[in-house]
Amino acid sequence: MERVTLQTIADRVGVSRTTVSNAFSRPDQLKEELRQRIMEVAEELDYPGPNPAARTLRRGRAGVIGVVFTEALSYAFADSYAVGFLRGLARVAEQSGTGLHLIGWPSPGVAEEVIGDAVVDGFCLFSPEGHPLVETVLRRRLPVVTVDHPYVEGVPFVGIEDRIAAREVATHLLDLGHRRIAIVAAQPMAAQAAATRPADWLDVDLAGDHRFGAGRARLAGYHDACVKAGVSWGDVPIHRTTNDREIARRAAEHLLDLRPRPTAVIAATDEIAFGVMDVAAQRGITIPGDLSVVGFDDVPAAEPAGLTTVRQPITEKGTTAGRLLLKPSRQDPSPCVLMDHRLIIRRTTAAPGDALAT
Amino acid sequence: MERVTLQTIADRVGVSRTTVSNAFSRPDQLKEELRQRIMEVAEELDYPGPNPAARTLRRGRAGVIGVVFTEALSYAFADSYAVGFLRGLARVAEQSGTGLHLIGWPSPGVAEEVIGDAVVDGFCLFSPEGHPLVETVLRRRLPVVTVDHPYVEGVPFVGIEDRIAAREVATHLLDLGHRRIAIVAAQPMAAQAAATRPADWLDVDLAGDHRFGAGRARLAGYHDACVKAGVSWGDVPIHRTTNDREIARRAAEHLLDLRPRPTAVIAATDEIAFGVMDVAAQRGITIPGDLSVVGFDDVPAAEPAGLTTVRQPITEKGTTAGRLLLKPSRQDPSPCVLMDHRLIIRRTTAAPGDALAT
DNA sequence: CTGAAAGCGCTTACAG
DNA sequence: CTGAAAGCGCTTACAG
Fold it and tell me: Cβ A53–B56 below 8 Å, yes or no?
């Protein structure tokens, strides 16, 4: 059996292809009777409806936006922050009948091709600076909005003041009296391969603001506070890890093996903080008695866990990004939206107590 | 400036369109020198790469699968079960360079059009029986796999034995001595509009197995156990709600207002169970002292919450569905895969104590 | 209200 | 190694 197209139906009914097309796409353009007739024949021939690829090609519009992550999607779905963002984005996309095409970065090479082949009208991009996906996405010459990072001249941006927020986190611990603070930084899974200057990643002098990615911006904020409090930045142990609870445990194990043991751990995200808490629990290290832990994001699980963290409007970031992409403003086509954040102090931070003696 | 296409580049370089196409898609088909030359001109003209819609049309393959939910995506992303499933699905999709196109059902009408226009090679469908999306998806005549429900003759299926698992849940409570059991059933958001026989939804005689959707299958299981234990099914209060924690709270409020108050609540999903627990906490009803609560799914948050529930292999469902779609078996093109489940008894269920006196 | 014509941008045998 | 030709399936002014 040959493939059924508009033409097949047209031939059968004895009308032109145009009319059949109208029957599907502009029903008001023909008599109800004829339309019905056409639909019957379509049904009879088991016609699956106008081919979407052909339609998109002709119309020049897909009705879909691409969402690009720098991690494998399987990691993104394990991260409440990403999921919360998607919830917001989905809300505005759905309202306008726009689909979501999710693209992750399982391994170098694959995603680049997927991005090049994505039938979409625009992209929403999460990505650290220098990541190859940035170039790939930009090259499509479609509307783009970046979230958290990178900030690209002329491209709409949504984020928060990561450096300032991170400074507040570290200051909170320092004010409590902590001096042996360790940091677990969030680094994209494959940053080694991706970063333009991997060796410089920890060089906070370069990490001035959101231009350098939230991961580094936060690091810079921790740095600022330490320096100001007279804690030598060079002595602060820093371990890089991916934003994944399980993987973060390894970093935590390393840090909690240090002697003298840190009295506080700053995690660059809540997900990582949970990993740290997992390891502490395993080893019988009490929180906040023996160890203070701070996260970042305030994902839903942070509250029940009593985690001290920075709240940022995750879902609102998603809706904002969606709106920027779907209905760009004429006056300000590439705005830089910086949203509010707030340090939420809960039960995982306290003055260093017994831990000092360890 | 006119739009740049393969032809623009061909004209500029002085070769045919074919050769330019080869430069992008089959680099081994031409001399490196010529290829380089072509790439330079492409760069110069700011060519965004071969148009994906045109490519897809010509090739007849999109490299994307559609994932269809019966709820708004913003709800799906609020549900750990759905997210866990997506994690599994994403894992196998990514490995083969396949994209994920997510489609929700924000309101009647919208999704139907999105499905008709989705440039995909197949669909993964979650849906209760009689839902309009089922027909819409099937009509595309693409490969489909359904998850949990509905079971459609000739279409690959992935699920668990919901009725049997639900029976175990209810039996657990009945064995503990509960007799005043209330049920919060999960019903798709817009079932009223969607179901073919909304009035029959609660008619368990019809809910024989997974053919009728997990929601009803579970209800049927609760029914079986009650009847067997001599609890009159007609006296069991049932409240329908959506699989959303916040929305479920309303159902819980209603049920906990009943006098005499139920000593146990069976929630059709963990998400709903959390809603019940929220309300109980608000009212100072202790669990399991005053009230036993059981969920279903064993989402990640269930363990820390101590929730008694049914564990099912959420992520594996995703990987299985993905594999069925991406590499269908020749011998058995439409298998019905029923995965294992297990009742996990934690700290939210106990014998009815003080509550009996209420 | 209906149809003939042009064209969306690409890929793929096939011939040279 | 390169090019001419055909065609993927549709929509959209435009003319009647």
Answer: yes
pLDDT mean over B152-175 = 94
Residue after which a domain boundary falls, among B141, B160, B179:
B160
User: Does residue B151 fall inside a structural domain?
Assistant: yes
Q: Is B253 found in the same domain as B168?
A: yes
Distance of B60 CA from D9 C1′ (whole Å): 11
> How far: B267 CA to C4 C1' (Å)?
63
The residues near B297 (Cβ < 8 Å, ≥ 6 apart) are B80, B81, B269, B270, B271, B309, B310, B311, B312, B314
Does residue B1 lie in a domain region?
no
The answer to whether residues B145 and B217 belong to one domain is: no
Protein-proximal nucleotides of chain C (any atom < 7 Å from a CB): 1-5, 7-13
Closest CA to A146 of A130, A132, A134: A134
C-alpha separations of A102 from A70, B129, B332 in Å: 11, 27, 30
What residues pair up with A17 in beta bridges, in sequence order?
none
For B64-97, how does the pLDDT look when each residue is reduced to its tens digit (9 = 90+)?
999 999 888 888 888 888 899 999 999 999 988 8
Helices (H) and strands (E) in chain B, counts: 15, 12
B97 within some domain = yes
Same-domain pairing of A156 and A168: no
What is the pLDDT at residue A213?
A: 67
For A42, the domain range is: 6-50
Judge whether residue A23 contacts strand C, using its CB and a 7 Å cut-off. Answer: no
**H/E segment holding residue A228:** helix A214-229
Looking up residue A208, the CATH number of its domain turns out to be: 3.40.50.2300
Q: Is pLDDT above 70 for B1?
A: no
User: Would residue B320 count as lying in a domain?
Assistant: no
Look at A95 and B276; give whichever has higher pLDDT.
B276
- Rg of chain A over Cα atoms, rounded to whole angstroms, equals 26
pLDDT of residue A198: 37
E strand map for chain A: 64-68, 99-103, 123-125, 144-147, 157-160, 181-186, 238-241, 264-267, 292-294, 309-311, 336-339, 342-344
**How many angstroms separate the CA of residue B106 from the nearest CA in chain A?**
6
Domain count, chain A: 3
Domain end among B142, B160, B178: B160
Dump pLDDT digits (tens) for B283-305.
999 999 999 999 999 998 898 88
Both B206 and B140 in one domain: the answer is: no
